[in-house]
Prior knowledge:
Mean pLDDT: 78
Strand order of the largest sheet: 3-6-7-9-8
Low-confidence stretches: 534-541
Oligomer: single chain
CATH architecture of the largest domain: 3-Layer(aba) Sandwich
Number of helices: 20
CATH superfamily of the largest domain: P-loop containing nucleotide triphosphate hydrolases
Radius of gyration: 30 Å
Structural class: alpha/beta
Amino acid sequence: MDVSEQINNFQDFIEKTYYTELVENIRQGKKYLHVKHSELAKYNPELAEMLLDAPEEILKSAEKAISRFDTAGNVQGTLLRVLGLPESQHIKIRNIRAVHIQKFIQIEGIVRQKSDVRPQVTSAKFECPSCGNTINVLQLDTKFKEPSSCGCGRKGKFRLLSKELVDAQKIVLEESPEDLEGGEQPKRLNIFLKNDLVSPITEKQTNPGSKVFLTGHVKEIPILAQDGGKLTRFDLIMDANYIEPCQEDFLSLSINEEELEEIKELSQDPKVFEKLVSSIAPSIFGHERTKEAILLMLMAGVRKSKDDGSVTRGDIHVLLIGDPGSGKSQLLRRAAHIAPKSRLVSGKGASGAGLTASVVRDEFLRGFALEAGALVLANNGLCCIDELDKMTKEDRSAMHEALEQQQVTIAKANIQATLRCVTTVLAAANPKWGRFDPFEILAKQIDLPSTLINRFDLIFPVRDIPDLERDKKMASFILNLHQDEKSMEAEIDTTLMKKYIAYAKQNCKPKLSSVALEEIKNYYVEMRNKGNEEGGEVAIKPIPISARQLEALIRLSEACAKTRLANTVTKKDARRAIDLVHYCLSQIGLDPET
Length: 594
């Protein structure tokens, strides 16, 4: 099929299938047209196959076909964006080989790094000083090319007349952790985005931490040697054609009609809270209060933005401190499994930059680029940090801003940036001496700075204390689990639970009722003034709770209301939140009576 046939076929295909979309896009000033590969394959299988084998040539023919249309707006420069490639073209980043060069493929991954948007030359026009001839040079490589000779015989020193510029940006795409097996390291690929793919609206889809599908064609670029020559080895990059974000966090999870019916039915169950709690980690014995906290943490409170620009976070942070082998890490892994977007890191192998963000040198666009850490990558999701106590003091202090303000501010090299990390944190740590000492106050055994501890809404000591009756039950529970794996199936399966939490987060914005407000206020005032009744010195009395814990009570009460899909926080919700906070305070060494 020659070029003129390709153009005619594309013109006919767009006219019959996508003409309305093209006219609408031009009217709105959008210089692109989204086309499904399956639609093209139905219309002309040969053309669809040629697109996969020679994308650059076929896409140019498509753009020429679009430019023939007579619409109200200017169609010149309108690009074809192809989505929904066949399964055979879905390639893992680690599986890209030389055979895929100049082929149209689809990949999936997480954006790890992103450069600034900068203009890039696509073609340049030069004039020959001798004969006045105009020479057009396409700029396909990373180095700017000038013509070597003219038809009149002149060599070198040509005058630059004009150049065509497009907006360009480089991102680094990394394989998703869930796609890896065993001890595999995630592989990365440099992706180049141009034109509408770097428009302000589309650019939000490629923020560090976003999971995306990409279609495009793979290119090889030479690796330069130290002496300026080229090596025989080549590097691979991808020229992106289409980007689509994956639905990943609770806020963008889609729910169909059948699932909605199931969710509504479950919310009417009077024991819905108990069922949800028992389904958090059915294979872990006990820890009912901790499971309650994890459920409320996943539900979260309501994020509030005030007129003065200040924001009160809605996310609930939970810290588990306990003896080794008490099931902390299992609870973390289960919570990460329930949350559709999650990151799991271990304290010993995590640094402050690895948790928040770092600045790295960008060798392609000559400058610096931001690389997101775990807390930023888990934006609108959950970040589980195991072995928090094993992190260094400097690395832990990097988390302060991320936990409370829910943003990470970077001012390094020539980059000043603020990254969003609206992330829920579930952390686990061991006591100061590895295990809890029964003869020492618990609060003295927590080897974490008060500035960090204060940012957690709930702190749970997970203790392993011998108890005859409890130990018998636990032994039976574990042995039954090994005998019959299905003996501990959750009352609500994980998929329905994800959808239930997603629906609550998307649609429920509970407000405090006057009775709930009064209940929380009374508890807060009572706890603040405990110990002062005997007329002791106020200045030397410890304060059990601060304004941060008051906000934690509000968040927990709102999360309790969300478990019923309610829009009003009742007295019962407030009471449940108070009981949970009271339990935590009594466990870490506060005597509620004094």
